[in-house]
Design a protein that fits this description.
Layout: H1 2-7, E1 10-17, H2 31-41, E2 45-55, H3 56-61, H4 70-75, E3 81-90, E4 93-101, E5 105-112, E6 122-128, E7 137-143, H5 148-164, E8 172-177, H6 185-193, E9 196-197, H7 198-203, E10 220-225, E11 228-234, H8 237-243, E12 249-254
Parallel strand pairs: 1-2, 7-8
Antiparallel strand pairs: 1-12, 2-4, 3-4, 5-6, 6-7, 8-10, 9-10, 11-12
Organism: Caenimonas sedimenti
Pfam family, one: Exo_endo_phos
Domain Endonuclease/exonuclease/phosphatase: 14-246
Length: 255
């Protein structure tokens, strides 16, 4: 068994909610520092939530505000492939989810899963072509709502996408900010979509990620289907507690 795992193609992934490039309560713009920290992780595929596409006012007031959309600024020369799913649009700009990849993204689709009300949420589905692997890898970047009844409906939509948009045998990685502080998603995603949460599988419980300075809630998750996981980790409090109110997760996925 160990021989099979070691010879299988590997993919390092990470997920983080970047809070639009600002520290908690929008005190300070830290996107350049955030880019350095994400680079040091060296992940092949990065799942980002709360990524700004544009914001006219911030661009005029903040000295080191990038000219490019934030997902392009973060991807830079490290991740030549990226996809963005715009979820929240307002008069000055928009934000949403993004996926950055070192390997080709051969297709992507953003699903608006907003339920009635001001909260706008999305599921960004990307198809990644990994060298040495015969099947494309499907990845879904998730940011679910704050209200439980909204999350229930959004999880139902997520399960439907896992059946309708990919072959049943394809490797699938679903990661992001689930806002699921009651941990209801585990059973639903296993029962309806065959998805296993990687920290539950490895350690018996999902990782505590929020607030990053002293995590008590398990809001951020990585679920997989048709692949295995080696050494999932919560990234260190330094520097991440300063860069996001969510602690990032990373793992090595064996396809």
């Amino acid at each position: 068994m160990s021989e099979t795992v070691s010879s299988a193609p590997q993919l390092t992934v990470m997920t983080v909610n970047i809070h639009k490039g600002f520290t908690s309560f929008n005190r300070k713009f830290i996107l350049p520092e955030l880019r350095d920290a994400v680079r040091k992780v060296g992940a092949d595929v990065v799942f980002l939530q709360e990524v700004l596409g544009t914001h006219d006012d911030h661009g005029k007031k903040i000295e080191d505000w990038p000219d490019a959309p934030h997902y392009e600024f973060l991807a830079d020369s490290i991740w030549p492939q990226f996809a963005y799913g715009r979820n929240m649009v307002y008069p000055k700009g928009h934000h949403g989810n993004a996926v950055m990849s070192k390997f080709p993204i051969v297709g992507h689709q953003n699903h608006d899963v907003s339920i009635a009300g001001p909260e706008k949420r999305g599921l960004l589905h990307c198809v990644v072509r990994v060298p040495g692997h015969t099947q494309d890898v499907h990845v879904i970047c998730v940011h679910l709502g704050l209200a439980e009844n909204h999350r229930q409906q959004q999880l139902d939509l997520l399960c439907k996408i896992t059946h309708s948009e990919m072959p049943p045998e394809a490797p699938l990685i679903v990661a992001g900010d689930f806002n699921d502080w009651r941990k209801r998603a585990h059973d639903i995603l296993w029962r309806e979509a065959g998805l296993r949460e990687i920290f539950v599988t490895a350690y018996g419980e999902s990782a505590k990620t929020f607030p990053a300075i002293f995590p008590v809630l398990s809001l951020d998750r990585i679920y997989v289907r048709n692949c295995s996981v080696h050494l999932p980790v919560v990234l260190p409090r330094r520097p991440w507690a300063h860069l996001s109110d969510h602690a990032p997760l990373a793992a090595e996925i064996h396809l």
